[in-house]
Every structure is written in structure tokens, then in C-alpha cells.
Task: inverse folding
């Protein structure tokens, strides 16, 4: 496993992190806790030292599973979790006041819950689980709370997990040096952060965590025209009908990234890591097999600049569709 710095935080993290949404047991279909724990152990054994979770992943269940596993081990991985918006809306409309989603009391209370669930005294990175661009101008009380949590030793760094297509919404906070890291929706099917965020993040030393690098599984190489999602799986509307067909056509155009020794999924992960602005990539991992397949992307051959550039050109041309 290779490692990179998380911006200017002083935290050196594995190129592949453990995305812990699915192990919370909600929005991804059925999940077995035994599988979750085996996946965590396997990932840590393979050198993964970065775990990304959130309180909302099972209302603390993901955090508790992680806490139980790290209690069994000697090493201390870098753990980041997220404060949910108080109004439980991850896609707030313009005009929604920041205080409705994240007020100082709420952030403090949720931080304490996460510390207890994880069984740690300090969170390596505390993130807010959504953001609106207009909130930058309302952020002074919130940032005061973050500064206090840092002084009190409750958190080491502060970040924001941005909305799927809102990668640039915290750019003002970057310029004001008020954010240590950003978790950004970034994959072969959504490349906008390359020009909307990366130059600024590089200039100010802000760490970039690439989330959903496999596009909710669409870049795993396993989807086909018969793929269906059931129950509470959040992908049942995203990848259905014409949405699924269009996605399959785009993925087919990207098959040039595959080789005899490189699967589509591994190539997709390595593509996110082809950019030095990216601190790491966090695919969702829910079982032993996924742990092995994803973590190997942080080792071995890297993706060539030529291949990365070809994928960029395809995206800019809307894959010829």
C-alpha cells in the first residue's frame, strides 16, 4: 500500500481508504456484521489506515463496528466521521440558513456521540455531511466551534463532505484557510473537480478525499442490462431504465483502461489516484472479497498519464453520446 499526505494536516494516509457506508446496514441492502468486521480486519491487514464513516450510516452502527474492530488491534488507523445536518436534509434548498443544518450545539453533541461510538478520545477528521455555497458567508459561529473542538483535543482536522455535484461549494473556505480537507464526488463518470477544485486545493494545501470512486458500483465492471436493485438500496432509481443504459454505454467506452492484470474496478480506483491533488480514494467495502480487490489498487502499477488523459477527453466529449 502506498501512502500520501492528507493536505497539510500532518496525517499520512493510505491511497485506498475504507468507505464504511454499507456496513452501517442501511441504503445498500442487507449487510451482515460478521462480513463487515472481516472486511475491516482484512483492509487493515493490507495496509489501509484510513476509515471513513458517518453517524448516519446506521445511526451510529457503522461507527460502533469500527470501534469494536480497532479495539481488537494494536495499530490506530486514521478515522474520519461526519456530522449529519440537523434538519436531516442532505440537499438543502438555497435560502436555508446554516443554523438550521449545523449549529454549534448540534455539532458539539454529535461529535461527542461519535467519539463514544468509536471508543476514541479524538477524531482525526470531523466532517460536515453536506454543504451549500451560501453557507460560507454564515460560517463564523460554526468555525468558532470547530476551533474550540480542536483546542479541546476532540478533533485534529476539519473537513466537509460535499454534495454529489457541488464540489466547488466550499471553495471560499479553502481561500480563507478554514478547511483542512474536502470529501468530493470524483470518478471517471464525474470529473468536474479536476478544474473546479483541484487547482485551489493544491494552492492552499487542502486534502482531497475522492468519494464514490466506483460510481456506486457502476465502474465495478459488474453491471449489465439486467442489473436491478431492491429494498432500501439507494441505487434502485439511479441505475434503472435509461439511466442504467446510458451508464453502461459510458462504461463500455472506458474499457480501454482494462488489461489482463487490471480489472475495470481497479483501473477506476487508480484513475482517481493519477492526480497528486487526491490524498486518497475511498471505495465502499462491505465484505472480505471487496476488501482485497479494492486495497490492491493502492499497490502495483500506476495508471499512465496517457490513459488518464484519454479518459478526461472522453468525459469532456460526453463519451461521444
Result:
Amino acid at each position: 500500500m502506498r501512502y500520501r499526505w492528507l493536505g497539510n494536516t500532518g496525517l499520512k494516509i493510505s491511497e485506498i481508504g475504507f468507505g464504511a457506508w454499507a456496513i452501517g446496514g442501511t441504503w445498500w441492502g442487507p449487510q451482515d456484521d460478521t462480513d463487515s468486521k472481516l472486511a475491516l480486519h482484512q483492509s487493515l491487514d493490507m495496509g489501509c489506515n484510513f476509515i471513513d464513516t458517518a453517524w448516519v450510516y446506521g445511526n451510529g452502527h457503522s461507527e460502533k463496528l469500527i470501534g469494536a474492530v480497532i479495539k481488537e488491534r494494536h495499530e490506530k488507523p486514521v478515522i474520519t466521521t461526519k456530522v449529519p445536518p440537523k434538519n436531516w436534509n442532505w440537499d438543502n434548498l438555497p435560502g436555508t440558513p446554516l443554523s438550521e443544518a449545523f449549529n454549534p450545539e448540534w455539532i458539539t453533541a454529535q461529535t461527542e456521540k461519535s467519539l463514544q461510538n468509536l471508543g476514541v478520545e479524538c477524531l482525526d477528521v470531523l466532517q460536515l455531511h453536506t454543504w451549500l455555497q451560501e453557507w460560507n458567508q454564515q460560517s463564523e459561529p460554526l468555525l468558532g466551534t470547530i476551533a474550540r473542538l480542536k483546542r479541546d483535543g476532540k478533533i485534529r482536522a476539519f473537513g466537509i463532505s460535499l454534495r454529489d455535484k457541488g464540489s466547488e461549494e466550499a471553495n471560499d473556505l479553502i481561500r480563507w484557510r478554514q478547511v483542512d480537507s474536502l470529501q468530493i464526488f470524483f470518478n471517471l463518470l464525474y470529473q468536474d473537480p479536476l478544474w473546479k477544485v483541484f487547482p485551489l486545493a493544491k494552492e492552499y494545501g487542502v486534502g482531497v478525499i475522492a468519494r464514490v470512486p466506483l460510481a456506486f458500483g457502476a465502474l465495478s465492471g459488474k453491471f449489465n442490462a439486467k442489473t436491478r436493485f431492491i429494498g432500501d438500496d439507494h441505487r434502485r432509481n439511479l441505475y434503472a431504465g435509461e439511466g442504467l443504459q446510458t451508464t453502461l454505454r459510458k462504461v463500455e467506452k472506458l474499457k480501454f483502461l482494462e488489461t489482463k492484470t487490471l480489472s475495470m474496478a481497479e483501473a477506476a480506483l487508480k484513475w482517481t489516484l493519477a492526480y497528486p491533488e487526491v490524498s486518497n480514494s475511498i471505495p465502499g467495502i462491505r465484505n472480505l472479497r471487496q476488501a482485497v480487490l479494492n486495497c490492491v489498487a493502492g499497490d502495483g502499477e500506476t495508471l499512465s498519464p496517457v490513459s488518464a488523459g484519454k479518459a478526461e477527453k472522453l468525459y469532456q466529449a460526453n463519451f461521444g453520446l
Summary: The beta strands are 3-5, 12-14, 18-19, 50-52, 78-83, 123-128, 155-161, 181-185, 207-211, 278-282.
